[in-house]
Amino acid sequence: MSFFDDLPEPPPRPRQPQPVRPEWAGPPSGELPGVVSPLGFVLRGPNAVVALKMVEVFSTGCLLDLVWCVRRSDESDQEWREVMERSFQGPGRPGILIGARLPDGRKAFAGTTTPSMFEGSEEVAGPVLVDWGGAGGSAGDQQAEGSVRYWLWPLPAEGEMQIVAKWDDQGLPESTLKVPGDRLATARGEVREYWPV
């Protein structure tokens, strides 16, 4: 017999309900998304690019997975250090303006504000484009690069979606990448629930 055989059983603890995240705040838990990939360049210049790698489509919205890269040209060491410093300030997007235009013409802008910052945020009409983590990056003597993900809500209706970007620091004017509606529709049909009812 062990000394610990007589330990009392702990009393049962009530299960805590799963917190409900608003749909605009991120992807639903318990879903395997459909994927649209590969996509293409939103911005492309002689020394800088922004590309949309893929779109993960969920039942309520989609995650946009973007990458950016700057390569060194004739910058001095000090100028290149300044480029790298600017590249890693902010939430994963170094001065890049990002937005989405839905098929019905509505627009969403990535920024520093979210609906939760305003009163009445439980009644969000959308569309909303919020940072969704995944930001990371690296830099060296010849190149700086990073990635960032955005949650777009609500899920775009049938039709083509456009991702729009502008990068003033790199001299890249506003440009658009079209995400074909048929590819979005196919991915929408591939969404699977973890726990089907």
**Unreliable segments of 5+ consecutive residues:** none
Distance between the termini: 46 Å
Largest sheet: 7 strands, antiparallel
In terms of structural class, how would the helical and strand content be classed? Answer: mainly beta
The helix tally amounts to 2
Task: Please bin the fraction of helical residues.
Answer: 10-25%
Count of folded domains: 1
How many runs of DSSP E, i.e. beta strands? 13
What is the arithmetic mean of pLDDT? 87
Q: Would you give an account of this structure?
A:
It is a single chain. The protein has one domain: Immunoglobulin-like. Helices cover 10% and strands 38% of the residues. With 197 residues, it is mainly β. The strands form 3 sheets. Strands 2, 3, 4, 5, 8, 9 and 10 form a 7-stranded antiparallel sheet that branches. The protein has a 4-stranded antiparallel sheet with strand order 7-6-11-12.
Summarize the structure.
By secondary structure, the protein is mainly beta. It contains 2 helices and 13 strands. Strands 2, 3, 4, 5, 8, 9 and 10 form a 7-stranded antiparallel beta sheet that branches. It has a 4-stranded antiparallel beta sheet with strand order 7-6-11-12. Strands 1-13 form a two-stranded antiparallel ribbon.
Give the helices and strands, then pairings.
Elements: E1 31-32, E2 34-36, E3 40-44, E4 48-57, E5 62-71, H1 77-87, E6 96-101, E7 107-109, E8 128-131, E9 136-139, E10 143-153, E11 161-167, E12 172-179, H2 181-189, E13 192-193
Antiparallel strand pairs: 1-13, 2-4, 3-4, 4-5, 5-10, 6-7, 6-11, 8-10, 9-10, 11-12
